[in-house]
Amino acid sequence: MLPTGSGLLAGFTFTLVVIAAGRYPSVVLVSPQNRWRFASGELRFSVAQFLTAPAIAFAASRISPWFLLLALILYLASLIWGGWYWDSRRN
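The structure corresponding to this sequence follows.
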């Protein structure tokens, strides 16, 4: 069964913020392909994900569900920007 109420709201908000924050390093930064790829990331982007995602998810759960809309806007902006950047680099 799926959780209902604030748990689902916080989880969805958290997911959108983490994906939006992680899109930049995955699209822009060129890093060598190591065997343990997820163990060797950039600390600054990890800190950004680990600080902003729980804060916005907590705000969506406790303060207002409008923070979910903010997370969705961040996600869509990162999706559009990532697609634009990817296409501009391929040409």
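The two ends are 46 Å apart (CA to CA).
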